[in-house]
Amino acid sequence: MQIKAERSYKITQADKEIFARDGYWISPKLIDDEQIVRLRQAHERIWSGDYDGDGYPMNHFQLSDNPDALRKLDNGWWVNDEIRTVVTDPLIGELSAELLETDEIRLWHDQVIYKPGIGEKATKAGNVGWHQDYGYWQCSDTSDMITVWIALQDTDLTNGGMMTIAGSHKWGLVPDSDSFFNQNMEELKHKYSDGRDWVEEPCILKAGQASFHHGLTFHGSGQNRTNEPRLSVVAHVMKGGTGYRAGIQRHDNIRLLGPRPVQGQTFSNEYFPVIYKR
Ligand SMILES: O=C(O)CCC(=O)C(=O)O
User: Fold this and answer.
1) What is the C-alpha to C-alpha distance for residues 198 and 163, in angstroms, rounded to an integer?
2) Which end of the chain is more exposed for a tag (fewer CB within 10 A), N or C?
3) How far is residue 198 from each of residues 27, 124, 164, 226, measured CA to CA in Å?
4) What is the CATH number of the domain that holds 150?
5) For residue 116, what are the domain limits?
6) Of 110, 178, 180, which is closest to residue 150 (Cα–Cα)?
7) For the purposes of burial, counting CB atoms within 10 Å of the CB of 210, is it exposed (0-12), middle (13-18) or buried (19 or more)?
């Protein structure tokens, strides 16, 4: 049965309480099936290097030459119009604004992620290590940021869906938590749990649903044990007025502030589009 996208969905008090308690919230279906088809085609074009416009994405990672490795490209919106439409979707902005209790949301950057299906092969190639997104984003002056992970197929643990650690956004920034590329989940769990309650919760999504997690929420994902790739588009968003915190950590977004960024300069130029304003 076809599930309709809920384009008029409004965040409820219960949604806010779930986000505040667990550090993440699962949306209803936001993206309709036609748009999902277009976004899956956008993936194909991107991975074959067929870009809209004459530019390049910000980064393109393939963790190795291994075909089983995760592929990830940052700022797909620079090179693909379908990706641009979804990561600047005002509905995603509005839901994020409600969860962060703010009036304006801008895009921080996006990711286009492809996790190959490896069936029964013995490899950790597709794993995304437990990490906090703010572990990478310490050049911004608030950790109140949200990652919106949009599923382009039904997604659960069998195809390497994301897991979050419930309540871990309350732990603050944990040292060395920028460990997306460390595929040893057990080692990372041991390192970060450090006597705290480590409760792994799967983000089970139908195609077109999204998970919204806080910048400090630990998350990661395991192998895609199916024979089909797991496709997603991810919008990382911030509150309007988020500024530069100098001298802490390098990030590619800093150079988008210009050659001489200054402490407190807001990430508010055309590289960081407003996606919602109340
Ligand atoms: O796609 C995944 O499994 C992880 C993605 C992720 O860590 C993120 O979007 O912050």
Assistant:
1) 12
2) N
3) 23, 21, 10, 27
4) 2.60.120.620
5) 13-256
6) 110
7) buried
Q: Which atom of ligand 1 is nearest to the CA of 234?
A: 9
Domain-embedded: residue 261 = no
In the chain, the number of structural domains is 1
56-70, 188-202, 221-235: which has the minimum mean pLDDT? Answer: 56-70
Q: Whose CA is nearest to atom 7 of ligand 1?
A: 220
Structure tokens at 134: 């703010």
Q: Note the residue count of the chain.
A: 278
Is residue 90 situated within a structural domain?
yes
Shortest-distance atom of ligand 1 to CA 113: 1
The preferred substitution site among 43, 112, 136, 162 for testing ligand 1, maximizing ligand atoms within 8 Å of CB, is: 162
Asked, for residue 122, whether it belongs to a domain, the answer is yes
Least confident of 38-52, 117-131, 222-236: 117-131
Q: Measure 179 CA to ligand 1 centroid, in angstroms.
A: 11
Whether 273 maps to a domain, the answer reads no
Asked if pLDDT for residue 234 goes beyond 80, the answer is: yes
